[in-house]
Amino acid sequence: MQIERKITLPKIGMSLVLLAMLFFTLMPIVFMISASFMTSRQILRMPFSWIPEGFAWENFTKAIQGNDQTYIFVRNISNSLIVSTTVAVTTVLIASLTGYGLAKFRFRGRTTIFMMIMATMMIPFEAIMIPLYMVIMMLRIQNSYVGLILPFLVSAFGVFQMKQYLTTFPTEFIDAARVDGMGEFGIYLRIVLPNCKPVIATLAILSFRSQWDNLLWPLLVSQSDKMKTIPQYISNFALERSTDEGAMMAAALLASIPMFLLFMSLTKYFIGGSAVYESRKG
């Protein structure tokens, strides 16, 4: 039996709104990709031609070589990969452990601890940035990976996200594992984590992206060119290449590739898991 779906005016309006949002979201990305293969003259020509007249591969060579042609781009993007990956992994592990404890264990002060963790989300990073920098200076770990990573190892939002997700996780599975003699850490590794792939993927992407785009903290901590991250590289590159729009677009495109690959590799987990999460809530 086929179910007829009526096309109503609200549905048409919603579809048009979604199409408009999709258009304005993709247009800058398409422009960046197209412009990265153009010369500056082609980019500035009006009306703009979305199809390059010839592929200017030298834009990518300039982007990788850098302003001083030392290929520092490779080192800077490696720094961002190390920092972003480390923060994403530690955030997922610590947040999942904390969220599991707050969601499935009953102990005095649990609500107070959770509220204190949530209260830290109300403090903007700019308010604690200078005290954090002073601590980094006293520990003498500035201009190092430790200095770049240490302030972001724990995420209050990640704890909140994991706790809310694990609250909906059936306690019967955990109780059955305890009856079978499995330890708490074994339950966490073999039962809890494998069933948290949607929220883990979401948290990993958000944590990775926040550090991949982080410019303010590396500006304070990283003094040498070898310890700078990719946002700093693009900022300096664009400052000295202000008249070479094609090379700037090429640098931006190359810097976007790791984030795009991570999103595409994990998208099936959090998109597929959103329906599961909603069904559990219902």
Helix and strand content put the structural class at: mainly alpha
Largest sheet: none
- Taking the alpha carbons of the first and last residues, their distance comes to 27 Å
Give the topology string: H per helix, E per strand. HHHHHHHHHHHHHH
Number of domains: 1
The average pLDDT score comes to 85
Q: From the alpha-carbon coordinates, what is the Rg to the nearest angstrom?
A: 24 Å
Instruction: Kindly identify the CATH topology.
Output: MetI-like fold
The low-pLDDT segments are 273-282
Strand content: under 5%
Enumerate how many helices there are, as a single number. 14
> Any guess at the CATH architecture?
Orthogonal Bundle
Number of distinct beta strands: 0
CATH class: Mainly Alpha
Shape: globular
The helix fraction, in percent, is over 70%
Identify the CATH homologous superfamily: MetI-like
Could you characterize the architecture of this molecule?
The structure is a single chain. With 282 residues, the protein is mostly helical. It has one domain: MetI-like fold (Orthogonal Bundle), CATH 1.10.3720. It has 14 helices and no strands. The protein is globular.
